[in-house]
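quick q for whoever's on today - can somebody do inverse folding on this one?? i tried earlier but teh output was garbage lol. tokens:
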């Protein structure tokens, strides 16, 4: 039996969605919005919830998924998927706009502490040994 998940966005994820895809009607934006909507649909259906999608190290309970330039970072608390961060940028692993270190710095800044509290988890300590990007194959 395939259960549907409820997808919620944090205020910063909603803001990123609006900024990236807001009022623009050009073809590139429509395609990117379709990619993001497709990822969200896959989450609702219970896909993208395997260990292949988890981050490593102190953020290993957070998942990531992406296609093309779009990346989302999310956590599971059945029946809810909480999307923390949406990234739609040029750049990949190791570039200045790599979404993983950007997301990690937002986590470490305390931006998501209230969401973590709601989910019953704690932010990793500042002395976390490795917040470097995961090695995606």
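ok took a stab at it. sequence:
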């Amino acid at each position: 039996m395939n259960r549907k998940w409820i997808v919620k966005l944090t205020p910063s994820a909603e803001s990123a969605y609006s900024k990236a895809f807001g009022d623009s009607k050009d073809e590139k934006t429509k395609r990117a919005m379709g990619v993001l909507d497709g990822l969200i649909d896959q989450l609702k259906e219970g896909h993208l919830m395997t260990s292949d999608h988890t981050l490593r190290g102190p953020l290993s309970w957070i998942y990531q998924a992406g296609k093309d330039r779009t990346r989302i970072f999310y956590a599971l608390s059945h029946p809810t998927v909480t999307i923390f961060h949406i990234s739609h940028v040029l750049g990949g692993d190791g570039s200045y706009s790599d979404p993983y270190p950007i997301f990690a710095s937002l986590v470490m800044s305390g931006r998501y502490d209230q969401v973590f509290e709601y989910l019953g988890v704690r932010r990793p300590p500042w002395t976390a040994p490795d917040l470097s990007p995961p090695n995606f194959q």
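fwiw Residues 34 and 79 are 24 Å apart (CA to CA). also Helices lie at 11-21, 27-44, 99-108, 113-119. so keep that in mind when u check it
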